[in-house]
């Protein structure tokens, strides 16, 4: 299994889809801007988040959010764009999505704080602040042999799981 990390901007509003088998997913389109000498190059990523995964972070994902996504990459596919030029379709199944600083509106937070325990004053009882960043899936926190894709026909389901237009986005 491969693990990929991408940093980029969400360029369209997240799109909710339902497969022919009834499975629900959210699709994000992320632009990964890269410098090649004097020229800027953009890698376009299609990021799939299956229902039940990363539920706490999904409502906060918006067009323009700058994020880091960790996941597994599906084999790249080629397609002809509207001009007849062949392009590569890069797809990632997300396990973790983190926001980069300044990418969310003010007050839109994904941190969780615990209340003081009985008899404990605010800030006592822990060496930590109590704020916990939500990161979704963590491979190290799962039992040996765990595979996030099991039970869905592999990581992406069967090949006919969803159809695409001529453009992958």
Question: Could you explain how this protein is built, in words?
Answer:
- The protein has about 170 residues and is mostly beta strands.
- It has one domain (about 5-140): Nucleic acid-binding proteins (OB fold (Dihydrolipoamide Acetyltransferase, E2P)), CATH 2.40.50.140.
- Helix content is about 0%, strand content about 40%.
- It is built from no helices and 9 strands.
- The chain has strands at about 5-10, 15-20, 25-35, 40-50, 65-75, 75-80, 85-100, 110, 130-135.
- Strands 1-3-4-7-5 form a 5-stranded mixed β-barrel. A two-stranded antiparallel ribbon has the order 8-9.
- A hairpin with a 5-residue loop joins strand 2 and strand 3 (about 25-35).
- It is globular and about 40 Å long.
- The two termini are about 25 Å apart.
- Mean pLDDT is about 70; it is low at about 105-115 and about 125-165.
- InterPro entries: NA-bd_OB-fold, Primosome_PriB/ssb.
- GO terms for molecular function: single-stranded DNA binding.
């Amino acid at each position: 299994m491969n693990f990929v990390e991408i940093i980029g901007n969400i360029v369209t509003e997240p799109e909710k889809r339902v497969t022919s088998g009834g499975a629900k997913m959210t699709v994000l389109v992320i632009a990964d801007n890269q410098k090649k000498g004097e020229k800027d190059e953009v890698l376009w990523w299609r990021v799939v988040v299956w229902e039940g995964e990363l539920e706490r972070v999904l409502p906060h994902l918006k067009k323009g959010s700058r994020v880091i996504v960790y996941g597994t990459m599906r084999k790249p596919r080629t397609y002809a764009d509207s001009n007849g030029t062949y392009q590569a379709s890069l797809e990632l199944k997300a396990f973790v999505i983190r926001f980069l600083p300044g990418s969310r509106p003010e007050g839109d937070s994904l941190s969780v704080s615990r209340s003081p325990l009985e008899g404990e004053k605010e800030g006592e009882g822990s060496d930590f602040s109590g704020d916990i960043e939500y990161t979704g899936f963590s491979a190290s926190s799962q039992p040996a042999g765990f595979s996030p894709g099991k039970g869905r026909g592999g990581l992406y389901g069967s090949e006919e799981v969803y159809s695409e237009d001529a453009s992958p986005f």
